TrEMBL record:
Lineage: Bacteria, Bacillati, Bacillota, Clostridia, Eubacteriales
Protein name per Swiss-Prot or TrEMBL: Cd(2+)-exporting ATPase
Subcellular location: Cell membrane; Membrane
Assigned protein family: Belongs to the cation transport ATPase (P-type) (TC 3.A.3) family. Type IB subfamily.
Bilayer topology term: Multi-pass membrane protein
A Pfam cross-reference name: E1-E2_ATPase
Natural source organism: Ruminococcoides intestinale
Tree of life domain: Bacteria
EC number assigned by the record: 7.2.2.21
Catalytic activity field: Cd(2+)(in) + ATP + H2O = Cd(2+)(out) + ADP + phosphate + H(+)
Keywords from the UniProt entry: ATP-binding, Cadmium, Cell membrane, Membrane, Metal-binding, Nucleotide-binding, Translocase, Transmembrane, Transmembrane helix
UniProt main location, coarse: membrane
Sequence ranges assigned to domain P-type ATPase A in this UniProt record: 196-293
């Protein structure tokens, strides 16, 4: 593609390809092509002038130029643009439309003759008058009626400039409402389903790679190490350890063998299995969760905003004031002065502006909020519910303790265990190997060939003796190693809430390794800070065992926790809390959390959460530090303070204008001017940041990023 470079700064370059370089329908395809490059951080594409703006990684300028030069519009497909590009376009279109609206209004005042401006005003007024009449016909008295009445009053008094100004303000309000609605809808309608295009179909002639849409119930597919299981089904052949933490909340992998069910969205850590398809992608458990979320979000989207409700309730009082003034003073000018002043205009404008400003401020701090209602819910919440695995913890098992028996020392037990486990790295094995490295224990191989028994353990020969390491089931039941009651008591005492690996050499228990999934470093501090911010109840829900849940809760200062809960249980617990009058924040990370996320008054997902959890959540934090929740709480409370402060100012100032108009102190034109000026002032104030960079209050600034 031919282009000119019109802006060229380090790590940021803008190409201008010309107004007719590509059509609007190709914007998404070009965006997808450019952002697919590993050297591109972000991009913007516009067909209006053929513009392509690229933010790239350091030292990649020449690669970006070659990338854009290689674009061939003739070979591009009109593919569906990504959700990210769609949201970007909504933002861009809003800014363009707002600029155009403001520019047209003031340029027409400067350059168009009065008769033409009057004609345009009359033409535009028809829409508001028609809408007001339709609302009245339906038996409602809302802001639409007041808007129409204000315009008609101006026209009847031949105050065309005032009418034009009123309609200008109303158009800005409408533009803001459309933008908020469109952006929220775009975020929520992004696909939540598992994005697997092809699967390996098992046939008599071998495995065949086919599109997933060609799959049928009863077919058999092969899923190997590291792959996501794309359908619900039953294992027909093979064994594998499957990470189901996103579905069940358990941090450790689970053995799946012939006859056991597996579910879409879970991941194979080790092994290979053949799965008989029981439910296709459109009817899996995960798709049903998505359906629950979709219904819940539809219900949320129909709720009327607080500002609109308040504005509509005030409307009748404006008309009462108008008619009362007309009756008592017999002065139409004074009565119109009251009609020129309404509380609803400023309320309807300042509230969405304050919300959008707060949402943008949050986005600047890597916090994505899908709408102002969620900030309000976060500010008013008194209960926060945490999932444990992956939310309060990192879901990264670590070695806690080593227990030695017989003639072996702890270091010897760990050295031998690490030597065996390094051959088959999975999450638990990695914890053992890393634990040995941290203790400075080297583990040279002294054993023979290692045999891996999937999901059970590892077996080999060490100095002529059979050495095995794995679960208690593998060591005791399969290998018939005796663990005495005294030994088990020692293990139970030292392991606490940890999972345990057993090491046996020569048919005797030689040691045990305690593996835990510890809380995030900042978790306790975050919970303490939230309590100081007015959160009265902190609850933990987990699929883990009682001992693991109790230990984690004790470390974090959580007194209310429930263990071994299923996804539907989490949903039920949240609903029960709401029925008891609690206002609930739900923080989760996995597929199993999504029903509860959808049920809560407001929900939050961290950056390392599953895709479906992030999409379900009302608020997403693009980081791994739980202290960012405190930042959201502070921001939301400040927003509500600003909105309430705006309400008080609007009511006080406009009440003064109404009183002045009633007493004949000011004319309708002055009343309209002061009303509009105060509205613009309060809107301008609402655009300012809620927090200051130099504020010393730690709760106002994002905490340092957690170690990755």
């Amino acid at each position: 593609m031919k282009f000119q470079i019109v802006y060229d700064k380090p790590q940021r370059i803008r190409f201008r390809c010309g107004a007719y370089a590509f059509d609007k329908e190709y914007e998404g395809a070009i965006y997808n092509l450019v952002t697919a490059s590993p050297y591109v951080n972000s991009a913007q594409v516009s067909s209006a002038n053929g513009g392509i703006l690229v933010n790239y990684t350091k030292g990649s300028r020449s690669k970006i130029i070659d990338l854009v030069r290689a674009i061939n519009v003739k070979t591009l497909k009109k593919n569906e643009p990504s959700a990210e590009f769609g949201i970007q376009k909504i933002d861009s279109d809003f800014h363009d439309n707002l600029f155009t609206l403001v520019a047209k209004h003031y340029l027409s005042k400067m350059f168009l003759p009065a008769p033409i401006r009057t004609a345009i005003t009359l033409y535009r007024s028809a829409k508001y008058i028609k809408k007001a009449l339709k609302t009245l016909w339906n038996g409602k008295l809302t802001v639409d009626v007041l808007d129409g009445a204000s315009v008609v009053a101006c026209l009847c008094q031949r105050k065309f400039k005032t009418a034009a100004t009123v309609m200008f303000m109303l158009r800005i309000s409408g533009l803001l409402e459309e933008y908020t609605h469109a952006r929220t809808k775009a975020v929520l309608t992004d696909s939540l389903a598992i994005k697997t295009d092809r699967v390996w179909l098992v046939t008599d002639d071998g495995d065949v790679l086919i599109p997933i849409e060609d799959l049928r119930v009863g077919d058999k597919i092969r899923v190997q190490t590291g792959k996501v299981i794309p359908v619900d089904g039953v294992v027909a052949d093979g064994e594998a350890t499957v990470n189901e933490s996103s579905m069940t909340g358990e941090p450790l992998p689970v053995l799946k063998r012939e006859g056991i069910s597996v579910y879409a969205g879970t991941v194979i850590e080790e092994g290979s299995i053949v799965v008989t398809v029981r439910q296709l992608a459109s009817n899996t458990k995960i798709s049903k969760i998505i359906e629950l979320i979709s219904n819940s979000e539809e219900l949320k989207a129909g709720v009327q905003s607080r500002a609109e409700t308040l504005a509509d309730r005030i409307v009748p009082f404006s008309f009462i004031g108008f008619f009362a003034t007309l009756i008592f003073t017999k002065n139409i000018t004074r009565a119109v002065s009251l009609l020129m002043v309404d509380y609803s205009c400023a309320i309807k404008l300042s509230t969405p502006i304050a919300v959008i400003s707060a949402v943008k401020e949050a986005a600047d701090n890597d916090i994505t909020i899908k709408g102002g209602k969620y900030l309000e819910a976060f500010a008013n919440a008194d209960t926060i519910v945490f999932d444990k695995t992956g939310t309060l913890t990192n879901a990264e098992p670590v070695l806690e303790k080593v227990v030695a028996f017989g003639n072996y020392t702890e270091d010897e037990v760990l050295r031998i265990s690490a030597c065996l486990e390094e051959h088959f790295p999975h999450s638990v094995a990695n914890a053992v190997v890393i634990g040995a490295e941290k203790r400075g224990i080297s583990h040279s191989e002294e054993h023979t060939e290692v045999e891996y028994v999937v999901a059970h353990g590892i077996a080999t020969t060490l100095h002529g003796k059979r050495a095995i390491i794995g679960s208690k089931h593998f060591v005791v039941e399969d290998e018939n190693v005796t663990v005495t009651k005294e030994q088990q008591n020692i293990i139970d005492e030292k392991s606490g809430s940890c999972s345990v690996l057993y090491l046996a050499i020569g048919g005797k228990l030689s040691g045990a390794l305690c593996i835990s999934d510890p809380p995030r470093k900042e978790a306790k501090q975050a919970i303490d800070m939230l309590k100081k911010q007015g959160i009265k109840n902190v609850v933990m829900l987990t699929g883990d065992s009682y001992r693991a849940a109790k230990a984690t809760a004790a470390m974090l200062g959580i007194t209310d926790y429930k263990c071994q809960v299923l996804p539907e249980d989490k949903h039920r617990y949240v609903e029960e809390m709401k029925q008891n009058g609690q206002k609930v924040i739900m923080v989760g990370d996995g597929i199993n959390d999504t029903p509860a996320l959808a049920a809560a008054n407001v929900s939050v997902a961290m950056n390392d959460a599953s895709d479906i959890a992030r999409e379900t959540a009302d608020i997403t934090i693009k980081g791994s530090d739980l202290r960012a929740l405190v930042r959201v709480r502070k921001l939301s409370k400040d927003l509500m303070k600003r909105i309430n402060k705006n309400y008080r100012f609007i009511i006080a100032f406009n009440s003064a204008l109404l009183l002045s108009g009633f007493m004949g102190v000011i004319q309708p034109s002055v009343s309209a001017f002061l009303h509009n000026a105060s509205t613009m002032m309060i809107c301008a104030k609402s655009m300012t940041p809620l927090t200051k960079k130099n504020d010393k209050d730690k709760a106002l600034s994002l905490p340092e990023k957690a170690e990755q």
